[in-house]
Amino acid sequence: MRPKRRLLVMMFMALAALPAVRSHAGAVEGTVWMSRDAQAAAARPTPGSRQVRAQRGVTDAVVWIEKIPEAAELKLSRPGRRWFWQRAKSELVPTVLQTDQKFLPRVLAVPAGGRIEIRNADRVYHSTFSVSAAKRFDLGIHAPGRRDTVGFPQGGVINLHSALYPEMLGFVVVTPNHAFSRPDSLGRFSLPKLPPGRYTVRAWHPQRGELEREVEVTRKGNTSVSLRF
Amino acid sequence: MHQSLRWRILFLTALAPLLLGAAALFTVHRDVAQHVDDSSLHENLDHSVAVFEGMLATRSRALLGGARVVAQDPRFSSLLMLGVSQRDRRFTNSVKVTAHDFNAITETDLFEVLDRQGRVLASTGEDHSSALARDALVRQALAGQVAQGVLIEDRAHYQVVATPVRGDGRVVGVLLLGATIGPRLASELRNQMRCEVTFLNGARTTGTTLSDSVDRRALATQLAELHLGPNTAIHRLGILRVGTGSREFLTLVRRIPGTPRNGTQFYVLQRSFDPEVSFANAMRRDLLAIAAVALILALVGGWLLSSQILGPIHRLVRGAREMQAGNYDHPLDVHRRDELGYLAKQFSDMRQREQAYVGSLEQATRLKSEFIHIASHELRTPISVIHGCLDLLSNPKAGALTPQQHKLLDAMRDHLGRLTRVAESATQIAELKSERIALDIQPQPLGAVIRAALGLARAAGAGRAVRIESELDDDKRQIAVDASRMSQAIMHLVGNGVRFTPDGGCVRVRAGVAGDTLRIAVIDEGDGIPAEQLAALRSHGNATQDSQHHRSASGLEHGSHGLGLGLPLARGIVEAHGGELQIVSVLGKGSVFTILLPLEAQERAAA
After folding, report:
1. What's the longest Cα–Cα distance across chain A?
2. Is the bond preceding residue B164 a cis peptide, omega within 30 degrees?
3. B428: Cα separation from own chain's centroid
4. Are strands B170-181 and B157-167 parallel, antiparallel or unpaired?
5. Which of B75, B86, B167 shows the shortest C-beta gap to A169?
6. A133 at B interface, C-beta within 8 A
7. Are the C-beta atoms of A189 and A58 separated by less than 8 Å?
8. pTM
9. Is A156 on the interface with B (CB under 8 A)?
10. Given the DSSP bridges, would you call strands B467-472 and B478-481 parallel, antiparallel or unpaired?
11. What is the pLDDT of residues A115-126, one digit of tens each?
């Protein structure tokens, strides 16, 4: 009986520990402000569409945490795969469409090591290339309907250009980890929950560039941060 | 033979090319002179200014076009769009390689890529601009405007275009393209406009096509005198003349377009007179060569033409001379079908007719002489019979005659004597005419011959109160003549003189040697001979049939009705001696008959 009891105790303790891990984590939330005006508009009693107008283009921004603990990263990289009996979800590869001589979406965020698919959904030929330090590639001229998958092993911002259409421009923001978020049209974003500690929040916008903030994640409650370009 | 016809033909054929050549030379000279006239060169310079500024504008457009194409090319702009974090260590090199590739297309002297802070990322042209010079242009471009202008460096000017490079709606960098305004542009302009071009930055020459240092120095001196500076009113300078004696240039100074109005960047256009002058010289030389060739051809043609014409004419002339000398059969050798051939044929026919006519005349003359000879000879026999009968009748043995009969017999004897002389004269003339006379030429003293003649004449002129005098230079001089016949000739001339000289007059015989000619002149004091008779006398020597001028017919034995055979007889004798009879007469004063005998012939005969 003794070994049985010992095993039961250990299982119990492990089950008790699980909620404990989940419980002492806080999320980083906040808003990306495109301008002082946007901040002012939000402060008004009824922000509504006024704020949306003032925040135009904010959805192109990407917000991520500079560095997170490996355990947290491991956890975030396998969302939902908690138990061995649960089937792993098929990996969804984010796609950049080329349509109407534009990259859609204009800004795509992927964690380092991730892949994206570049699909020519247009009726014309395209030729995508990048000269950014994080990833240099040239897909050459590709016909309508063709799909290419490009992997991004290291973080950084990659400019997507078309050798055929100078005005075509897209961005792939490769974040160092899975703790990244995209703001909504009001500029609000919410990063995954992280263990307590000091973190660096970075935000990047194609026109406005990059900025960073230090945040303190506490054991209880969410941390709010305001990022203004 | 006269040659004037040939020269006339040559002159006329050569005249046309000579005149044409002269006219062409004159025309070319005038046209070139008009072209060289200042105004046209001024226009030319103005035109060169327009061409130069047009070239600059074209280059500027080309630069702008090139810059736009490059700036819009994604492969170029994508590099500039990289933020600092997106660049790696290869970035600068990539920019350089890309810039180099694009510069190979634009082929501009300046090709500089600047980032959004105005820092040079790559400069791949042959030249590089200085930060100070390009600053204003780059700032303008970074502000989003295309900046065009002239970049002024110490030693060069550049036409530049600074184009903003845009990415995602922002200016991400600047592309600076520039073309040198220097020697290459100058030589290009010179090739187009035949114009010397010099670029100046203040007093410094940044490019010139003047190859001769003398010309460069002359230009520098002239420009130094002008004191070109920021405030120089360039357009008031007008067109200058810069020259070094041998070469002179029309010179125009202007500011380089695109430089500030108060700048000191100038270009100088110079137009020399040399091309026009050398063109005129070349034309003149060619025309002279052509004219010379044309002249030679014309002269050769004229010579051939004149030979064609003159050859037959010369042969005809020779034929005519031969005909004159009595040769009617000289070959003419003109076998042509043209006018000259016709003329030769006519001449030949005429010559034959002439020959026939002259032959018939000679025949007639011979017959006449024969007739006279025979007749006169035949007269002698009855004359001598009558003579004998008269002698018999006057002989007292034949019977006494009454004084009346004696008188009649004397008259008969007189007339018989005259008849005898006429017959003798006629015989002699006939002999002379038929050249059957035989001269008995012996050396004789001149005086003896003259005296014999005067004796005969005095005898003939007995009864006339006319003196006969003689003046001899050299009495003893030996002359080779048939003495009796020469005496007879002189006697006839003296008798003639006596006959025409009124009583109380004088007939002189003057003989002497003048040069190589023996002259025997018979001078009378008669009334002279009228002109028409003189001409007749000179031509054929016939005696005048008119004796009305005889003042006294009784002095001559046959009264006033002479047959006048004396003069032709005298002429015949003189000519038989190889001499000549000259007759000079002044109406109312008298006549001179001169026998001229060549002494050479005399001496030859004497030898």
Report:
1. 76
2. no
3. 61
4. antiparallel
5. B167
6. yes
7. no
8. 0.55
9. yes
10. unpaired
11. 999 999 999 999
